[in-house]
Design brief:
This protein is an alpha/beta fold. About 50% of the residues lie in helices and about 10% in strands. It contains 31 helices and 13 strands. β1 and β2 form a beta hairpin. The chain is globular, with a radius of gyration of 29 Å. The N terminus and C terminus are likely disordered.
């Protein structure tokens, strides 16, 4: 009788121990939890949850429903924190599942329960403190931790099914697995990642299952029922929630107009479901060599074990990565040898979560990968380590098994004893040997201490502060043109969740290339300006509330605008006293709408300074006046004066308005309190503040205001130092470039014929 079979009748999962271990991880996450939103998609998903809206395609409907529930629970002082708790809880649940799986593998290995519990605890510690898992668990950046919980639950159910494939609960377990797969798909497409391995395990242990059509039909029905929350999207989209990306409905004028769910709605839904507005090449068309794509995974794998001070100690990071990789490979081998029954599922699962996933994702070079190659290769706009969260989390099972094997091997060298188990005699290390060699287990706590600074979001409010600052740079009822994710999603959050400056209309150029987004701008109501809570710079003045949309266009006219047009000759654009020359270029649909808003002159137009040279691309550089974090489009030529100064290379600066806005900025304090800005692709946000203070310092210097210049420069340096930008910005002349990097993180839809829904 095999050892695993010998002990299975006596085996009872240690659910209480798993819950305790997961609870301790949950406490860690709460201690390091973000009280607010964060960069990238965090604001989008928190806003979608709070407003019961639709995030970017395919929309993640089950997450939205879960997030909506958590946003209402009285478990934290802010909406963002409540949704962040959902992320923490999801990862803690996943950790409990990895505990149970590790313990199950050790059943045929160790006699005493404490040894198996120790192994499970190691898996929780290693997986729960891996950098990407930890950092995603303390702020709900996307849906990955919720998806991880579903995958881990499926993994545990499949391992239990492998124990008794012909047991009384076997069929019900398979139906439950299918249902959770459907739920997982409605959270994220990765919810299906466990399906191939689960199917292979069924074929290995009970191949006749494929002939049992009643069971197959039950599983298919459960799968579709689990994913049924997608049906909520056309219904909710037709009610025009504040966040309605993709707008999967044909009801352009709302349900009140007598719209029915016709074939047009089905087409719109499927276009959204299949992510039609985003382009991705066939898998055969590799965006980078497969070796480079594996190299990306390896880079992110190195991050998991020591992310703090990674620039100062790259050798240590690589060495620890090799240690944990070796532990994982040893653990996989031991798993195969000691418990081939569950390995039939878990081995293929790890293959799916690593090599197969790498091949399927087909990424370009990572944003931080192979920096020596520079711009000679195409790169992702940000680091994509979160796509491998499932891989790094599940890897904790094998890493724990490898560490336990190392512990046992070292203990066996110091002393062993024989023990009778039924008719068998086994050789085990002595208790004294176990105790003496136990310090080797300290390897498992390395990530806890070496990732704390980089993973923790405790007390960080910089993203929400930035959103408020940016909105407050715009005059009441203004239009703010943005270009990317990080200068748009936080603003949506500030408006719809925090209720800040809803009078400002945000026009994102990436999304203006779609028909649905343009319609939403035309339909959006004009909200009253809350002067009491607005910036001091705009108080005590009379602001006229516009009565209509930002453009004099109907929905049909907007839908008819082409995806763009090629300009082969310089073109003169006029709007009142504005005379701008647009040089030969491809004028995208978004550019046409921006120019139309300028021509119609319904509301003040501002360009976020994160848009870089976008204004110059449209020939408007001589009409842009910097005011705080944005540039106002003036309706006539700008005239130099004491308060209006041209600072190279930024351009014209409204000194008193900028000074008044800078005085009320919220983010500098939170940025200065930050030890490091780990995410380099979003570094344009702190740089925006450094540049603004430096710009103000230069303007003061040109005015002869020595004290004001020194004070502004001191704050610029303080922010740069706190976010570790000082070395690259302030050289010997202490003069960084004043221009702000463009927010290049654009999820730009693929130009395609505009559909009339």
């Amino acid at each position: 009788m095999a050892s695993s079979e010998r002990t299975e009748l006596d085996y009872r999962p240690s659910y209480l121990a798993a819950a305790v271990a997961a609870g301790l991880v949950m406490i860690l996450y709460i201690l390091t939890l973000s009280p607010e939103t964060a960069m990238w998609d965090t604001s989008e998903y928190i806003t979608a949850a709070y407003t019961l809206g639709i995030p970017h395609p395919p929309g993640n409907p089950f997450f939205v429903l879960l997030g909506r529930v958590f946003s209402l629970l009285p478990i934290a002082p802010t909406v963002a924190m409540r949704v962040n708790v959902l992320a923490a809880l999801s990862s803690a649940v996943a950790a409990a599942m990895w505990f149970l799986i590790t313990e199950r593998v050790l059943v045929g290995w160790f006699v005493e329960r404490w040894q198996r519990v120790a192994g499970g605890a190691l898996a929780v510690l290693i997986g729960g403190t891996a950098f990407t898992v930890w950092s995603q668990s303390v702020v709900n950046e996307k849906v990955y931790t919720v998806s991880l919980a579903g995958l881990a639950i499926i993994a545990w159910l499949t391992v239990r099914w492998c124990d008794e494939p012909d047991g009384p609960k076997a069929d019900r377990t398979l139906v439950l697995i299918a249902y959770i797969l459907g739920l997982g798909y409605a959270v994220h497409m990765a919810g299906m990642l466990a399906a191939p391995a689960a199917g292979l395990a069924v074929l290995i242990h009970r191949p006749k299952t494929v002939l049992r059509w009643q069971l197959i039909l039950a599983c298919v029905a459960a799968l579709f029922f689990g994913g049924s929350s997608f049906a909520t999207q056309p219904i909710r989209a037709a009610q025009f929630p504040a966040l309605n990306e993709g707008e999967p409905t044909a009801c352009r004028d709302g349900l009140k107009a007598g719209c029915t769910f016709s074939k047009g709605t089905y087409d719109a839904f499927m276009y959204n479901f299949n992510r039609g507005q985003y382009g991705k090449p066939d898998l055969a068309e590799r965006q980078a060599p497969f070796s480079a794509q594996i190299g990306m995974w390896w880079l992110y794998f190195k991050w998991q074990w020591v992310r703090d001070a990674h620039n100062e100690h790259p050798g240590l990071q690589g060495a620890l990565a090799m240690v944990f990789l070796a532990l994982g490979l040893i653990g996989g081998w031991v798993h195969w040898k000691r418990d081939p029954r569950s390995f039939a599922f878990f081995g293929p699962l790890m293959f799916t979560l690593s090599l197969l996933l790498i091949y399927y994702l087909n990424f370009k070079y990572g944003a931080s990968q192979d920096p020596d190659l520079g711009d000679t290769v195409q790169r992702e706009v940000r680091d994509r380590d979160y796509f491998y969260l499932w891989s790094f989390s599940a890897f904790s099972v094998w890493a724990a098994l490898g560490l336990v094997y190392l512990w046992e091997s070292l203990a066996a060298l110091l002393g062993h004893e024989t023990e009778r188990l039924g008719t068998e005699t086994v050789i085990l290390p002595t208790r004294r040997a176990w105790a003496i060699t136990s310090p080797v287990l300290l390897l498992a706590i390395v990530p806890l201490f070496s990732n704390w600074t980089a993973a923790s979001r405790h007390g960080q409010t910089d993203t929400a502060d930035f959103a408020i600052d940016m909105l407050n740079s715009v005059e009441p009822y203004g239009v703010l043109v943005t270009v990317g994710d990080n200068d748009t999603f936080p603003l949506w959050y500030a408006q719809e969740v925090l209720g800040v400056r809803k009078d400002v209309l945000i026009a994102n150029t990436s999304l203006l290339n779609t028909d649905w987004y343009t319609r939403q701008l035309l339909r959006r109501p004009v909200y009253d300006y809350d002067e009491k809570n607005g910036p001091a710079a705009y108080r005590g003045q009379k602001w006229v509330k516009p009565s209509g949309p930002p453009m004099h266009m109907t929905l049909d006219e907007a839908d008819a605008v082409p995806i763009g047009q090629e300009i082969t000759q310089p073109q003169l654009f006029t709007a009142g006293n504005i005379r701008a020359v647009v040089q030969p270029r491809f004028l995208a649909r978004a550019d046409i709408f921006v120019l139309q808003m300028i021509k119609d002159n319904v509301r003040p137009i501002y360009l976020s300074r994160t848009s870089g040279g976008y204004g110059a691309e449209l020939g408007l550089q001589d009409y842009l006046l910097t005011q705080g974090l944005a540039r106002k489009l003036m309706r006539d030529s700008i005239v130099a004066g004491r308060d209006t100064i041209k600072v190279s290379p930024e351009g014209w600066v409204d000194v008193p308005r900028t000074a008044a806005l800078v005085k009320d900025l919220k983010a500098p304090a939170s940025l200065i309190a930050k030890n490091e800005w780990v995410d380099r692709p979003s570094v344009g946000i702190p740089y925006l503040y450094v540049s603004t203070d430096y710009l103000l310092s230069e303007a003061y210097r040109m005015q002869g205001n020595v004290a004001g210049s020194a004070q502004a420069l001191a704050q610029a340096k303080a922010i740069a130092k706190a976010t570790q930008l000082d070395k690259e910005l302030f050289g010997a002349d202490e003069a960084p470039p004043a221009a702000v990097p463009t927010d290049s993180a654009r999820r730009t839809p693929v130009p395609a014929p505009v559909k009339k829904n």
